[in-house]
Amino acid sequence: MRVRAPVLVLSVLLCHFAAVAQLPIAAPSIFIKAGKPLDVTKGSYIDNAGIWIEGDRIKEIGRAPDIQSHVPKNAQVIDLGRATVLPGLIDCHTHLMARVPDTPDGYTLNLATKSQAFRALEGAFDARITLNAGFTAVRDVESEGSGYADVALRDAINQGLAEGPRMLVATRGIAAVGQYEPFGVSPDLTDFPTGAQMVSGVEEARRAVREQIGHGADLIKVYADWQYPTLTVEEIRVIVEEAHRQGLKVAAHATTPEGIRNAVTAGVDSIEHGHRADRQDLELMKAKGTFLVPTVGVIDALVEKSKNEQLSPEQIKARDAFLQGVQRVIQQAMSLGVKIASGFDASSPDRQGKNANELLALTKRGMPPLDAIRAATMNAAELLGWQNRVGTLEPGKYADLIAVEGDPLVDITVLQHVKFVMKGGAVVKNTFSP
Length: 434
Ligand SMILES: [Zn+2]
Known about the structure:
The chain folds into two domains: 4-86 and 394-430, Roll (Urease, subunit C, domain 1), CATH 2.30.40; 89-384, TIM Barrel (Alpha-Beta Barrel). Helix content is 37%, strand content 20%. The protein is built from 14 helices and 21 strands. It has helices at 4-22, 64-68, 106-113, 116-132, 149-158, 202-214, 233-245, 257-266, 279-288, 297-305, 313-336, 357-364, 369-375, 378-384, and strands at 30-33, 36-39, 44-45, 49-54, 57-63, 76-79, 84-87, 89-94, 135-140, 166-169, 174-176, 197-199, 219-223, 225-226, 228-229, 249-254, 270-273, 291-293, 401-404, 420-423, 426-430. It has a six-stranded mixed sheet, with no helix packed on it. It has a four-stranded mixed sheet with strand order 5-4-1-6. Strand 20 (420-423) and strand 21 form a beta hairpin. Helix 7 (233-245) runs parallel beside helix 8 and helix 12 (357-364) packs across helix 13 (369-375). The longest helix has 24 residues, at 313-336. Zinc ion binds next to loops. Zinc ion binds at residues 93, 95, 141, 345.
């Protein structure tokens, strides 16, 4: 070890030098005439506001005349007129590497016909349209069989090689052997890629976490069930223990009452979907501070898509019962005070970039528009562990902000038509000015 130490020191110094050498020249000061920004914490608008941005951070926000009196004289001025300004939106459940057709064999074909290199390029496209839709940060909850392509995409975005939101990535995901996509592949095809890293037993679970962290994971994703409970509480507990030890959070796919209970008992940080959660699950989540990411927008998209299909009376009955159940879960979670964060779960070409549909879907289930916006800003930032960086318009935070025409507290659908996007002080999109 003593022999290796100088080599390590040298490589750290070289890395540091490389990082410094790549830094862009400090961005100029920017003064945004911000119309009316939404203070998501208070739930009210600031009138005649201005935002002063230095480099990639917000320096000051308040009344425009006060701020304009002391911004640097050479500051670039961006006038957003009467637009409504909000913090950049955050999607807590993306799969940017997934452009999977909605067909019964779509997932398998996607794995069989695309290289991981191609999947990464698809991810780059999805990252760009997601950012342009106003989502300046995402938590990407597993790469769906594209290996570590999400790490590559995150790093490319951070280095300015690709355009996209800030990303937290889960890499491969962890599921019980045989209990996740693809299903129905011939057992003779032993090297056929899988949608997640398949494990059996606590030591394999532990190894998978260590491996994924070693290859660049920012969080760990586990499948606690797949229609039925799969991983045991002991397996999930080891996963949580390994991840938490290194400061990473754990997101658990869980839809069944028992799967949810297993995951929450094991100490995961969020339940993804939770569609069949019972009251006991939700009370446990409230007690332990576990987030719920309900992913209801994707349900609405699939119901809409199935409108042209011929369904039997039994199928219609089952679908309606499921939809009522999901609505009950969200309302019960709200009334119990379970923390809710927004995630759209897009995984097909026609849903990528439509992340704001989730906010609409949440309000359709009775969530007030302000709470839906909080689910995609301050609550989401807390789930990411980035509450000191993003999620609200405050001094010191990244200058990640969006602007829309109209009032999202009255009509949430205006967030489906974001007209201005800024990430880290750089204008990504501005369709206000000619
Ligand atoms: Zn998902």
